[in-house]
């Protein structure tokens, strides 16, 4: 039983890493060079495997893997310096909290809709 749990946890961690890398790419992808951007797009947006990307770009799988890791490292560096993804996630949490407060405080219409609209605009 513990083996299944460990496998499940590893799977969840891998999925979270891919989702985080995709988010970083959404925010900072335009800062990557052409090759890095192309590999990241094929991997994170088109969900191609490293072998499929290598075939499409006529490169080795190892070269694609190196480019992908280098791109992800660059994206992480941008996030470390700029913090846009962290700020976005924090703002989304605050928006959810604001929605809960609006709902639980019994704010009457049309004020509730106006407040929700403002919160949505802030977080988009």
Can you offer a commentary on this structure?
- By secondary structure, this protein is an all-alpha fold.
- It has helices at 2-28, 34-45, 50-57, 61-82, 84-104, 111-123.
- It has two domains: 1-82, Arc Repressor Mutant, subunit A (Orthogonal Bundle), CATH 1.10.10.10; 83-124.
- It starts with a helix and ends with a helix.
- Mean pLDDT is 86; it is low at 1-9.
Topology at a glance:
Elements: H1 2-28, H2 34-45, H3 50-57, H4 61-82, H5 84-104, H6 111-123
Mean of the pLDDT scores? 86
Supply Rg: 20 Å
What's the CATH C level of the largest domain? Mainly Alpha
Biggest sheet, in brief?
none
Task: Describe this protein with a few key phrases.
elongated; 124 residues; mainly alpha; single chain; Arc Repressor Mutant, subunit A; 2 domains
Offer a concise description of the structure.
With 124 residues, this protein is mainly α.
